[in-house]
Amino acid sequence: xxxxxxxxxxxxxxxxxxxxxxxxxxxxxxxxxxxxxxxxxxxxxxxxxxxxxxxxxxxxxxxxxxxxxxxxxxxxxxxxxxxxxxxxxxxxxxxxxxxxxxxxxxxxxxxxxxxxxxxxxxxxxxxxxxxxxxxxxxxxxxxxxxxxxxxxxxxxxxxxxxxxxxxxxxxxxxxxxxxxxxxxxxxxxxxxxxxxxxxxxxxxxxxxxxxxxxxxxxxxxxxxxxxxxxxxxxxxxxxxx
Length: 241
Prior knowledge:
The protein is mostly beta strands. It is about 10% helix and about 40% strand. It contains 4 helices and 12 strands; from the N terminus they run H-H-E-H-E-E-H-E-E-E-E-E-E-E-E-E. The protein has helices at about 5-15, 15-30, 50-55, 90-95; strands at about 35-40, 60-70, 75-85, 95-100, 105-125, 130-145, 150, 155, 160-165, 180-185, 190-195, 230-235. The strands form 4 sheets. The protein has a 4-stranded antiparallel beta sheet. A 3-stranded antiparallel beta sheet has the order 1-3-2. The N and C termini lie far apart (about 45 Å). It comes from Planotetraspora mira. This is DUF1684 domain-containing protein.
C-alpha cells in the first residue's frame, strides 16, 4: 500500500505532537526515568540481595528495583538490580531533547500481517558484544515509500509493538544506535500508523546502564528519516555515562 496516511490522521498527529513532546521530557527526567538510571547490577547465580541491602549507603534520592532477563548463552534466567537517582548528574545537567520540525510526510499508514505463531527474530543488543537475543515479532509491517517496499519487524514489548529502526541520520544528528517508535495497533486491525514524528532516542542515549536492541537489517532505511527526536542536550559539557 502507499505510505502517506489520510489527511485526518496527519492532522490528528500534528495536534497531539506538543503533548507527546511534553510527556517525553517529563518521562526521561522522572525519578525512575532514563536519566535517573545510575547502575544495573547482574547478580551471580544463587546470590540473594535485598533492595534494602542494595540501597545501603546511598542517598535518599536513590531507588532500587529488580529486573530479569535470559542469559544470552545458556538461556537461563538472570536476576539483577537497578539503582535510580532522582538527583543524578544527568538529570541536573539535562536541558532538552532536540527534535526535527513536524514532518507530515513521515506519518505513514502500513499493513500489519500477523503470523500464525509467535515468531522470534534475533536482535543484536548494544552491550552484548555482537551477540543476539531473540525477540517475539507478532507480524509484518509493510508499506511502499517513494517506490521502495519496506517489510519491518516490530517486536512485542509487554503488549506494545516497538519498532527499532535505523537511517542515515544515525551518528550524525540522531543517536548512533538507531531510534525507537511505538506502533499502536487495535486488536484485529489490518493497518497501523507509523508516526515517525514520535520516534525517540533509546534509553541508551541517556544512560550507559541500559542494554538496548539495535536495528536489524530489514529495519534500516536508505533515506534519512528527518522526523522525531535527534539527541539529548546537556549543560556544562556533561555527557551521559
